[in-house]
Amino acid sequence: MLALTPLAGPECRWAVARLWVFVLRWVAALVILSVVLVASWYCWFMHHLDPAFLPGSALRISLTIAAGLTLAFVLLLAPAVLAGAFTGDPQRSTLGILLSTRVSAGEIVLSRFVSRLCQVGMVAASGLPGVCLLAAYSGIGMKSLAVMLLLTTAVTCGSAGIALSFSVLFNRARDALIGAYAVGLALLFLPLLGPLWIPTAMAPWFEALNPFWSLSPLIEYGQLGPAWRSILVWSALAPVGVLTTSWLLRPAYLRRAGGNNDAARRRRHVPPLGDCPIRWKELYIEADKDFGRLVRVIGQFVLLLMLGGSTLLLTLFIWSSWNRQSPEIVEYVLKTGAVWIKTISLPMSWLVQWAVGIRAAAGIAAEKEQGTWNALMMTPLGGGQIVRAKMVESFYSLRWFLAATLIVWVLGALLEAVDFYGFTTLATRTAVYVGFMSAVGVWSSLFATTSGRAITLALAIWLVGKILFTVAAVLLVLVAMLIHYLVWSSIGFASGRTSGITPQPLMSIEMAMTIFELALCVGTTILIAWYCHARFDRLAGRCPARPIPVRVQPT
Hints:
With 555 residues, the chain is mainly alpha-helical. The protein contains 23 helices and no strands.
C-alpha cells in the first residue's frame, strides 16, 4: 500500500515516532498481561482446591476477555486517531498546499489513512503475545487464532474508515470524534433490535455488525462463520470511508476556507446576570456552543428513542394490568419489555458515564480552543469556582438524559426485569463511575490542549480504569478467599478435625468483587480530585512549573 502514494512513507515515519504511541503500547500490553496473570493464578488456585479441576473452560473465557479487550482498544483508539486527520488542516494551512500540488486527493487521504492506521496497529499488536499465549494454553487451533487476528484487523480498518469520513464532515475534531463514536455504538447495539424487524435470513449478517458476538462461538466451539461475516462487513467499511473522504476532501476544504455561512441559531431566553457570573456564563452562553449541530441531533435522537420506548412499555404495562381477559398477551408484553430493559440497562449505564466524561473533558479544553482560557485565568476566580461551574453546566445539559435513564430503570424494576439487588448495584455502580468520570474529565481537560484529545484521554482512562479495577478486585477476592480458607483450616486443625472442613463464605463472590471494585474506584476518584484541586494553578497554566528566579541588581 505504501507504493500507491508517495506521501505514505513520510507520514508513517512521522506517525510511528510519536511518544504517546509507545506509552499506549505499554498500557495495552500491561492490561492483556494482567488478564494472563489473573487467569494463571485462578487456575493454580482452583487446582489446589480441587485436583480434578480442568482449566480449559477458564482459559477459553480468559482468551475471550483478552480478544474482547483488544477489540475495545481498537474501537476506542481508531476513531480518536483518525477523527482529527483533516479537521486541523485549515488552521495549519497544510491541506491547501497539498491540494495545490500534483498529488491527488485520493493519495492524500490514503497516506493519512495508512499513517494513522500504523499507530493503531502498533498499539493493538502490543497485546498479541498475551493473546497467543492464552490461545496456546486453551488449545484452540491455528485456524481459529488466524481468524481472530483477521477480525481485529478488519474492525480496526472499518472503524478507521468511519472516523476518516467524519473528519471531513466537521470543522472541529471533537464533533468528528463524537460522531464516529456514535456510529460505532450504533453498529454495536443495532443487532439487539434485529429480531424486531429483520428477516430471519438476514439476521446472521445483521448480527455481524457486532464483532464481540462472534468471539464466543469462535473460541468456545470453533465456529468460523460468524467471525468471517464480521470480517467481511467491517472490511467493507474501510474502502467506503476512504472513497467518501477522497470525494469530499476538496469541497470540505473550500467550505472551511470560505468560512461558516450557516445562519446563526436563535438563542433561547437568557435570564439576567445573577450573583455567580461564571455559572451564568456556563449555563446560558456556553451550553449552545459546546458541540456541533449534528452531534446535538444525535443526542436528541437517542433521548427520544429512550423516552419513546419507555413510554410505549409503560403504556403496555398499564394496559396489561387492566386487561385480564388475554393472559397470553399480558405475559408476552411483560416478558418482551423485561428482556428489552434487561438488555439495554448496562449499555445505558455506560452511556451515562461516557456522557458525563465527555462533557467534563470538553469544558475547559473548549475554552482553550476558543482562546478564552487565558482571559479566564486572569480573573480572580479560583479553580474550585471554575470547575464547579463547569460541572454544574455538564449535569444541567444532561438532565433530560439522566431523567430518561432513571425512568427506564424504574420501569425495569416494575416489570421485574431487574431485582432489587441488581437495581441497587446498577445505580450505585453508575453513580460511582459518574463521579470517577467527572474527576477524570476535569483532569484530562486541564492536561490536553484540545477537546478531541481530552475526550479521547478520558474515555481511554475509563476503559483502562474499569479493566484495572476489575482485575484488582478479582485479585483481592482471591487473596481474601485464600486467607479465609487458611483461617478455617487452622480452626479445624486446632479443634482436631483434619477432614470435612468446609469454609462458610461471608458473602457471594460477585458481591465481594463489586465492593472491592467500587472501593478502588472511589479511592481513585478522591485522589484525582485532590490532585486537580491542589495543582489546579499549575495544570491550568496560571503559574509556571518551575519557579522563575528573580535577579536582584546590586546597588
